[in-house]
Write a structure and sequence with these properties.
- The chain is of the alpha+beta class.
- It has a domain of 38 residues.
- A 4-stranded antiparallel sheet has the order 2-3-1-4, with helices on one face.
- A hairpin with a 4-residue loop joins β2 and β3.
- The longest helix has 13 residues.
- The relative contact order is 0.31.
Amino acid sequence: MNTPTADRAPGTGWYRIRIKGHLAARWATRFDGMTLTAQEDGSTLIQGLVVDQAALHGLLSQIRDIGMPLLSVTHTGSDSPPDPTTPS
């Protein structure tokens, strides 16, 4: 393969994870380097760079462990952060 992402681990890239309910800012430390944004619809958007599948599963385990319902997981790309104005 001759693509820019060929040498990266599977699952590497920018993700948007949406959960039901709002998380207080103090929870941000639990989601290493991810940005938490409360949405008007009552959900929280967790977004940022995920280094591999193991890290993604770790994030999803954190969500499970705090008891927040998972609404969606979207891989937005591998090379650059998602456009914050684009809905997921």
